[in-house]
Amino acid sequence: MTVFLKKNLLKLKVGVNILADVVISQATIGSLLVDVSLCKSTAEEISVTYKDELKELWNPLREYVRVILPDKLCSKLHFMAEELNVYMGTMTGLYPLGPESQISYSLTHSPTITEEYMSLNISTTFYLLGKPIVLPPRVSSFSLPHQVGSKNAMVNFVLPKELFDSIYFLMQKSGSINLDITGQLNSINNQLTTSVLGNLIPEVRHQFPQSMPIMMKARISSAPTSTIHGDKVSLKLPYNLEVLAVSSNSAFKSLFSLDVIVELKLNMFVSGVKLQASVSFIKDIELKVNASNMGAFDLEMVKPLITSAFKNPLLEHLNALFGLGAMLPNIAKLNYITPEIFVHEGYIVVSCGLHFQS
Asked: Fewer Cβ in 10 A, N or C end of the chain?
């Protein structure tokens, strides 16, 4: 500690030794709580640079500093812990997870602290329109693995498959992975018309002699299924795809519906404090006739039209949705830097450094 008195070009230099017991526990709101249970501070070597005529002034001041400074330093340390707890409390806030849905984090119990690391077990709560949702029961045998991720990282997040399954379930409940695709009759390249479809299904041409636009409504029919295996993260989405046409009275008439299976590869990455993903198709989509108001028809003939009209809009929609990302546990003004992602059987590890914006 160095104090300058510019007027007289004097300098006071103090050596300080602080010993403190810092206790880290769980706050009632579910965040980390930092407390200083014991603090002892001593002023050691004190050197003074002064003018000879001021020697009588500085010698008493030096002893005063030796007595008063230790209490001031411990008070400052307690204040710093209280200020840090304000930031720690922000971990339990609500963070957007997608349209109309949120996620929050909280500690399940006090942290485990060893000489080498501190381990936090964090639970998640999901919200839809501001209300917590009840997740389906899952049988989980996941336990926190040891020595995962990067040894040089400041923090390693272990994200089990069950977390991703819960996120996909929330997307299903919120309807965010549903999709409507509407053809425009005046579009030059539009293939979603009854005249185009009527060339493949005669009954469509019979019921719609005048070309009308077609709409496709894709709705998730059952829970999405995720897989984390080897170095690959995949997601299977079962859709019910209803194909409708605008009738003469401007009402939509259902032509037929299809069961559709979409299998996607998720490429995970971290941006800021969010875990995001880009998606791509693993293989071509699977189609099966569920119901038809146009009589029997050859699905193989219709498949190229449906596939070409469905795949690109779906991919754009899902990439935009997964690009929003899921907030990782964090506190205000904290950013994750130099992230690395490791995929293991049944879980993902995110290793990164920390940067606090003061």
From this structure: C
